[in-house]
Amino acid sequence: MEMTDEIRIKAPKALVYEALNDPDMLKAAIPGCESLEQVSDEELEAKVVLKVGPVKATFGGKVTLDRSGAPDSFSLKGEGSGGVAGFAKGGADVVLVADGDETILRYTAKAEIGGKIAMLGSRLINSTAQKLAEQFFTNFSARLAS
C-alpha cells in the first residue's frame, strides 16, 4: 500500500520540522498512541492501539529516523507487531516547503501488513490508513497552532 498527500500547516518550516522531531508532539498527534519514547538520536519506541474493522490490537515497535536531508526533508522507517493480529512495517519520506509564514508538507508513505489484519481486505485497510493519516495531520496542525 502506498499513500501520497500534501497538507498546508499554518506555521513556519523551522517550527514544523522541530515539531516533527519532538516525541511529545508526535505522541499527542498519533491516533491511538499510548507511548512514544526516544531511545537514541535516530530511534523511537512506540506502543499504539489501532482498530481496523473488527480487529483491535496493540502494536509495539521501533521507528528509525533519517534526518540527513534536514531541515528540508527526512525519512522514517518502522515496524511493529500486534501479536495474533499481525504485523506492520513501512516508512515515509517527508518534504517541507516554506510558503510565506506557512509550510507545505508533502509525504509518501509505504506500508506492508500481515496476519489477521491483512485478511480484512485492501479497501478497508486503505480507507483506515487514509483516515489515520488525516487524523494525525489534523491533530498535529491543531497542536502546533496552540
Automatic annotation (TrEMBL):
InterPro entries: CO_DH_gsu, START-like_dom_sf. SUPFAM superfamilies: Bet v1-like. It comes from the Bacteria. Pfam families: COXG. This is Carbon monoxide dehydrogenase subunit G. It comes from Rhizobium aquaticum.
